[in-house]
Amino acid sequence: MNQPEDSYDCILIGGGLAGLCSAISLRLAGFQILLLEKNHYPKHKVCGEYVSKEVTPYLQFLGINMQELKAKALDKLHFSTQKGLETQIPLPMGGWGISRYALDLTLYNRALELGVKVAQDEVTDIHFENNQFQISTKSNKVYFSKTAIGTHGKRSKLDQTLQRSFISNRSAYMAVKRHVELDFPEDVVGLHNFDGGYCGVSKVETNAVNICYISSFKSFQHYKNIAAFEEKVVAANPILKTIFSDKKECWEKPLVISQISFETKECVVNHALMAGDAAGMIHPLSGNGMGMAIRSAQLASNETIQFLKGITTRSEMERKYTKAWKRNFLWRLRAGRIISGVFRIDWLADRLLRLLRRHPALLILIIKSTHGKLMKGNIDGN
Length: 382
Known about the structure:
Layout: E1 6-13, H1 17-28, E2 33-37, E3 50-52, H2 56-62, E4 72-80, E5 86-97, H3 100-114, E6 117-120, E7 123-129, E8 132-137, E9 142-150, H4 157-161, E10 173-181, E11 188-194, E12 197-203, E13 209-216, H5 217-220, H6 226-232, H7 238-246, E14 248-249, E15 255-258, E16 268-269, E17 272-274, H8 289-308, H9 314-343, H10 346-358, H11 360-369
Parallel strand pairs: 1-2, 1-9, 2-6, 4-11, 9-17
Antiparallel strand pairs: 3-5, 4-5, 7-8, 8-9, 10-13, 10-14, 10-15, 11-12, 12-13, 16-17
Helix pairs in contact: 1-3, 1-8, 8-9, 10-11
């Protein structure tokens, strides 16, 4: 075994929302932390850029003030089916519209301010032996730690190395995101259905409008390019047709990702806790992936801190985290799959939306099923 180059209390593998929030939480508790992220900061990411206000107290505890970041306060939901049947209701609890570019950069700077060590590198292997982790990177560095949290996102080469079960199944989804100039209300998040997918629309802190949609490959594969697909499929929804016709592009070209998986994932792999999208991703129709990532960071940090303080054993840490993760997210994920499945069936979606327009309280209940309660403003978030 190689000699340690660096040794830490915890290593975070991936520097998105879950990784950064976990790093800050653990550092605030007084531990030596390394965060490994393969990309540079700041960077735009494919994301709906809506985060439920349920996370606000925890972000404040971490030192992040959404109002100071000029995040848009979103308190209305505008929803439409493929045929353009629409409704607008108040959002329970509400949310923030903020770009990942701004939020990730703010969290990154906060982590540096607290003394978190951040290295731009890609993890290639995780080895656990003699009650410690040996983590190898693409630049041939080796780090050691007492604990590790996988926060590396939706899908990674690391998942192949770890032989995670979901990685062998080819995903049938892709996502496209752009920022545009558009006359659009500051307090509304739009969620619009089209054949094979959903599109989210909302303003962010720069006053640009984020348009982000996810689609099945089955729906996309008959078209030569994104422009043709958007014209023939996405814009078949008359609400989206107006949005796409009126927009002025802020970027030269949109961001595109593929191989998005909604399959069940393990919460603990080879004694490393998994958080954020590495542990599970909710369907975008449910619109709260950012909130889930932040909440899972709180859960993972809390259990890691309890272990590092000697309050729990490693097996207790893993068991308690798995239980807490399932308690907080398992129903959200199931509800998201059910809801997205219903709204993919055009005739059923129209009938359901007519019902929901007559009884808006039912739609509020559906939204609440994919969101959590207001988080505690501390590390112990169970």
